[in-house]
Amino acid sequence: MTHHPIDPLVAFAELSNIKLRDSSLDQVLARVARLAARTVPGADEVSITLITEKGPHTAAHTGDLALRLDERQYEAGDGPCLRAAAGQTVVEVPDTAADRRWGPWAPGTADSGFGSALSVGLPIMDDISGALNLYGRRREAFDADATTLAGTFAGYAAVALANAHQFYSAVALARHLQAAMDSRAVIEQAKGIVMAQRRCAADEAFAFLTKVSQDNNRKLRDVAAALVAGVSRTADD
């Protein structure tokens, strides 16, 4: 794919000024990948590997071929992106056609049209690691300056991704807590209705709602909400 190069300082400023409230995590990751492709000389395709407790996956990529090259490493359980992420280091593959460190992966990458690769570890969170993966069509596409720049870019990117992860985790937690509070409120309303209708105590009312939930294979909150809505409709009529 064709990239329009930008000044590294401009790229670093963009990474520092990403507005998290106006973007999703996927959008932030995609933006980082696109910026890397435009910033590091020799990078024709870029991907971002993230490794969580569920294993490795490609969280963003500038092209489907970069995704496939990553996934071949995940399937094999080894490769430059996995080593870079595990060791938080830089792994260079100057000539994919001649490299034999990962069995058929490098020659297969050469057959796919990429002569070199460069992976840089991304220290994101204690429980999440990753790597910035750069693929070049030429052999030895990444000289010493490009490799140094890729490392600097990865440092800025890691900070941006760590901030994004913390922000979206906090947003998700807030939404979860709000949903829990809303569920509790409607369940308490339903308990009050059952207590009035059946002239029973709170524990008995809750047991009744739970049994209805189990018998009908419905969530307790949904049973409670339906009961509250039904009483509201009756009151309106």
Describe the overall structure:
With 237 residues, the chain is an alpha+beta fold. It has two domains: 8-171, Beta-Lactamase (2-Layer Sandwich), CATH 3.30.450; 173-236, Orthogonal Bundle (Arc Repressor Mutant, subunit A), CATH 1.10.10.10. The protein has eight helices and five strands; from the N terminus they run ααββααβαββααα. Strands 2-1-5-4-3 form a five-stranded antiparallel beta sheet. Helix 6 (144-198) packs across helix 7 and helix 6 packs across helix 8 (220-236). It starts with 7 loop residues before the first helix and ends with a helix. The relative contact order is 0.12. The mean pLDDT is 86.
The best one-word shape is elongated
The number of distinct β-strands equals 5
What is the helix tally?
A: 8
Helix content: 55-70%
> What is the gyration radius calculated from CA atoms?
26 Å
CATH topology call of the largest domain: Beta-Lactamase
Mean pLDDT: 86
Oligomer: single chain
- Portion of residues in beta strands equals 15-25%
| Total of domains | 2
